[in-house]
Amino acid sequence: MLREQEIINEFLNNKRIPSRRELMQRYNITESTARDLRAIIKYLLQNNLQEPDINPVDIVHLPPAYECNNGKYKLTGYRRIAVLSDIHFPYHDNTALRTALKHVYTLEVDTIILNGDIVDFYSVSFWDRDPDKRNLQAERDLAIKGLDAIRKIFQDAEIIYKVGNHEERLERFLSKKVPELWQLEELRLENFLKLQDLGITLVNGEARIECGELDIIHGHEMRSWSSVNIAITYLRKAFKNVMFGHFHRSQADTKRDIRGELNGAWAVGCLCQLQQSYAPYNEWTHGFAFIELFDNGHFSVKNMLIQGGEVF
Question: Of 55, 160, 174, 290, which residue is least crowded by CB atoms under 10 Å?
Answer without folding.
Answer: 55
